[in-house]
Amino acid sequence: MMLNYTIRRLLMLVPVLLGMTIIVFLIIHAIPGDPAEVILGEKASEESKQALRQELKLDQPLYVQYGDFLQNLVSGNLGTSIRTKEAISEEIMPYLAATLELTIVSMVFAVFVGVNAGIISAWKQNSWFDYISMLIALIGVSMPVFWLGLMEQWIFSLKLQWLPSIGRMNPRDPIETVTNLYTIDAMLAGRWDQLWTAVKHLILPGIALGTIPMAIIARMTRSSMLEVLRSDYIRTARSKGMSQFLVIYKHALRNAFIPVLTVIGLQTGMLLGGAVLTETIFAWPGIGRYIFDAIGSRDYPVIQTGILVIAFLFVMINLLVDLLYHAVDPRIRYD
Amino acid sequence: MAETAAKVQPVMQPPAFTNPWSEGWRSFRSNKMAMAGLFIILFFIGAAIAAPLITTFDYKEQDLMGRLQAPGGTHWFGTDDLGRDIFTRIMYGARISLWVGFSSVMGSILIGTLLGIAAGYYGRWADMLISRGFDILLAFPGILLAIAIVAALGPSLQNALLAIAVVNVPVFGRLVRAKVLSLKNEEYITAARALGMKNGRIILHHILPNCLGPVIVQGTLGVATAIIEAAALGFLGLGAQPPEPEWGKMLSDSRQFIATAPWTVIFPGLSIMLTVLGFNLMGDGLRDVLDPKLKN
């Protein structure tokens, strides 16, 4: 049953992924500007530009270029960056890891604070805690992330000087990269001082990026909890004399968590691609910045592959969440 | 004579007819959060319309001698790095943000509703095609797709507006499609069809009015999202171009002065947040009124 469903969902992904490649390909090739000129500079001779266009196959008709692109993609060749001449599949890794590390930290913050605030708000409905945390959540979803980031930098870096305002690491003490997740790398090297530095760099951007999901998760948890707390089995658990804490965290949360899980999955996917603003503010060398800079320098292959990689991860995370439902709630039937 | 007539006439009062709109308004009015939202929105609309009456400054007028002045009597919110009055720029900026918010959402609603009805009502291959299209668009993180579209079309406010509208089409499309699917098998639709009503009439008179509630709710929340997205594109230099007083652009232009002149960054950001908060509050309130099933 489960296996069948998984296979069917994977098959359904094929047209979606194909459609995504077409859209991205078309958008990218609609970008005005001549990559040959960008690479060689405005003063380059027409012959050398023409030669480069030929080398990059930019003179071929669109469908031929798309065919090549798709063929390469299927065979695992993600292309070469026009600007750096490096294979994108290798070049992209540190950027991807940087965004991944930031996303994980943000989501841990968002889930921990959001779920607990939501639970307590539902538990103490209409209390001061409920009002204040829901007000914070409302402000949180309305907050432009780039402004929140700037305010954090102003208060915690410039005024109080508690935390570094930009970057991932102290540039004079570079980290020995293995996984490109700096916190893990620092631990692998046994450099606890570096771990502390990496963590300090993660706090401000992590909170900035995690605020919107935190607010959404808090609101979702609260409303889902309120519904569950009214159900018969909770009344039964209470009348058995079970403690409030156990009733809520053991019985109620289990059912209330299912809709929250969707939100968590959806938000994780959004953060991966939506981090470009946070990355801009905090000079975080992540995938969003990588793509944004590539747009500036007309690096077609990088823009193409970058967007597709993110969209692919987004689709996969959503699939994973769907499948996870089953684990959390066996009542859900796949048909 | 007149007295007896008055006594005889109203024996049986018809049941009091309550207009659903006035009933909705009453319920909306009793919702404090929603009213706060409405108030914030009206406040910014008022500022946008009355900007030339409230302020004597010009939003483009530079005063290099008076750059980066702290908030005070003449310049309520201070001045920016070119000596322009920030209060004035924020009020004129409200025009841009509200315009982008409303018009892009209108565009998304129009196209989304058409596609949603086509998919939901006619089904089959139309549904297959349109729904997959929505899936594909929704598979991209919104801001990234908007960035790519603006990069392709060239940075400007118009193109940012267009990109935001495109990105949000599937949100409304899916909503309408789901609503149509649930309405299609209602008995009164079957009855209308049995009476020989044409598809176009059924859609116009029975399906569309029933989609209105959820679309209004989602539309109000959508304006909030659109305003944030427009500010984000402006911040990245892909939206409104100088000297337009767009709030996001104001933020990115001033961020280098945050240490010495924090007011240049605080006020534009605060304006974005408040406007968005207003639409979010009102959207939540409207949901309680128009979509009672979702109420806690």
List keywords for this structure.
heterodimer, A: about 325 residues, mainly alpha, MetI-like fold, about 0% strand, B: about 300 residues
Compose a concise summary of this entry.
The complex is a heterodimer of chains A (335) and B (296). Chain A has 335 residues and is mostly helical.
Describe this structure in words.
The complex is a heterodimer of chains A (335) and B (296). Chain A has 335 residues and is an all-alpha fold. Chain A folds into two domains: 2-74, no CATH class; 93-296, MetI-like fold. Chain A is 76% helix and 0% strand. Chain A is built from 14 helices and no strands. Chain A has helices at 2-30, 35-40, 46-55, 62-74, 88-123, 128-142, 145-159, 182-188, 192-229, 232-239, 244-274, 276-281, 287-296, 300-328. In chain A, α8 packs across α9. The radius of gyration of chain A is 24 Å and the shape is globular. By secondary structure, chain B is mostly helical. Chain B is built from eleven helices and no strands. Chain B has helices spanning 2-8, 20-29, 32-54, 86-122, 124-138, 142-153, 157-184, 187-194, 199-235, 247-254, 263-290. The model of chain B has no long low-confidence stretch (mean pLDDT 85). Chains A and B meet through α1, α6, α7, α9 and α11 of A and α5, α6, α9, α10 and α11 of B.
